[in-house]
UniProtKB/TrEMBL annotation:
Record gene name: bioA
Organism this protein belongs to: Sphingomonas ginsenosidivorax
Protein known as: Adenosylmethionine-8-amino-7-oxononanoate aminotransferase
Keyword Transferase: yes
Signal peptide segment: none
Subunit and partners: Homodimer.
Catalytic activity: (8S)-8-amino-7-oxononanoate + S-adenosyl-L-methionine = S-adenosyl-4-methylsulfanyl-2-oxobutanoate + (7R,8S)-7,8-diammoniononanoate
Residues holding pyridoxal 5'-phosphate: 103-104, 228, 292-293
Record: residues binding substrate: 43, 135, 257, 291, 380
Function: Catalyzes the transfer of the alpha-amino group from S-adenosyl-L-methionine (SAM) to 7-keto-8-aminopelargonic acid (KAPA) to form 7,8-diaminopelargonic acid (DAPA). It is the only aminotransferase known to utilize SAM as an amino donor.
GO MF entries: adenosylmethionine-8-amino-7-oxononanoate transaminase activity; pyridoxal phosphate binding
């Protein structure tokens, strides 16, 4: 019996847990010889494909030179190169790069930056404003600014209060904007949002003009705007950042997942200069108190630098556009099938519901998971919400397999 306790896994159900031995592109190979199509980028992280040669080579070379070094008061070239590389492709106003380890910790850093900014200014602003159905991670601060429910109900005593504005569902966008304006008028510290796509909340999409209006409301009220692009960044919505589609530049930007091409954990929180300056002082008590042992790990930074090189040297956005077109074409067929509702696409992502309204603990969820697993596909529905978010390197034939299996599931399971 394995001693491993897996995340988001109810071991009491006795579901099989395949063991993967190696991977390449969009394909996973298991110990029993199966060829699995990774249709969700291994939890949304793998952009260019598994074991990309340039990323693997960069980590191998770095491992022979420097594996790890404390980053408090020390530095190394991979981190310096990565910070400059990010500044070159991210919005010009985001001048500072703070390293951490995961999407959740990048959000924790963002929240602490925001509160530290107001504290340093001598203004008592503590309330964080969030969007309904949002998800920002599983650490305490990240859970606090996410939707309350099955993900975190056991930990409610640990979570801090937030102001929640309704999701801008079609026809109800103004209610969102009005609620945000009221929350900002009450002297909020920051508004945190997943731009254009809410991931774990059910792959919920909203239009760019709403994001732009939300940003304008925050700017008018002097409320810091935090964009959590952990999932939406690195091309998932069709552009490098989702914020680009709304002409939005956040005050604080969270990046992870595709930052290293999905190869190893790394995250950054980028901030505008006034936030850094608020912490700058000759008083040691005003420093930014956050770190981890592996902040800016050199191996991870080397992987991220290789990812930036791929974005510079290769036609990544052309691949993104091609994948988006194939996804949309597949969705057009799936949308016509009985039992399918809410068929939608955004960039390289498609999603739909089977069997009615979305519900994370839908009894259909485990059946769908098993159905796809038995067909050698890595698809992990969010309850009865089925979504496809593959690496950009997936072949047309493998993507067709994924779409066909979803169609088969509609016929077999959704009736």
């Amino acid at each position: 019996m394995s001693a491993v306790w897996h995340p988001f896994t109810q071991h009491g159900l006795g579901e099989p847990i395949p063991q993967v031995t190696h991977a390449e592109g969009a394909i996973l190979h298991t110990v029993d010889g199966r060829r699995i199509v990774d249709a969700i980028s291994s939890w949304w992280v793998t952009t260019h494909g598994h074991c990309h040669p340039r990323i693997v080579a960069a980590m191998r070379e770095q491992a022979e030179r420097l594996d790890q070094i404390i980053f408090a008061g020390w530095t190394h070239q991979p981190a310096e190169d990565l910070a400059q590389g990010l500044r070159a492709i991210m919005p010009e106003a985001l001048t500072r790069v703070f390293f951490s380890d995961s999407g959740s910790t990048s959000v924790e850093v963002a929240l602490k930056m925001a509160l530290g900014y107001w504290t340093a200014r001598g203004e008592p602003r503590h309330r964080i404003v969030v969007l309904e159905h949002s998800y920002h991670g599983d650490t305490i601060g990240a859970m606090s600014v996410g939707a309350r429910g099955v993900y975190n109900q056991a930990y409610a005593p640990l979570l801090f209060d937030v102001a929640t504005v309704p999701f801008p569902s079609p026809g109800h966008e103004q209610a969102t904007l009005d609620a945000l304006e009221r929350a900002c008028a009450d002297g909020a510290a920051a508004f945190i949002v997943e731009p254009l796509v809410l991931g774990a909340g059910g792959m919920l999409f909203y239009p760019a003009h709403v994001l732009a209006q939300m940003r304008a409301i925050c700017a008018a009220a002097g409320v810091l705007f935090i964009a959590d692009e952990v999932m939406t960044g690195w091309g998932r919505t069709g552009t490098l950042l989702a914020c680009e589609q709304a002409g939005v530049v956040p005050d604080i930007l969270c990046l992870s997942k595709g930052l290293t091409g999905g190869a190893v954990p790394l995250a950054v929180t980028m901030a505008i200069e006034p936030i850094f300056e608020a912490h700058w002082s000759t008083d040691r008590a005003r420093m930014f108190f956050h770190s981890s042992s592996y902040t800016a790990n050199p191996l991870a930074c080397a992987a991220a630098n290789a990812n930036l090189a791929i974005w510079r040297d290769e036609p990544v956005l052309e691949r993104v556009a091609g994948l988006a077109a194939r996804q949309a074409a597949g969705l057009s067929t799936l949308a016509t099938l009985p039992g399918v509702t809410g068929a939608r696409a955004f960039g390289t992502i498609i999603a739909l519901e089977l069997g009615g309204n979305a519900a994370y603990l839908s009894e259909l969820g485990p059946r769908l998971l098993a159905f796809f697993r038995d067909r050698d596909l890595l698809l992990r529905p969010l309850g009865n919400t089925v979504y496809v978010m593959p690496p950009y390197s997936i072949t047309p034939s493998d993507l067709d397999r994924v779409h066909a299996a979803i169609g088969e599931a509609c016929a077999v399971l959704a009736g």
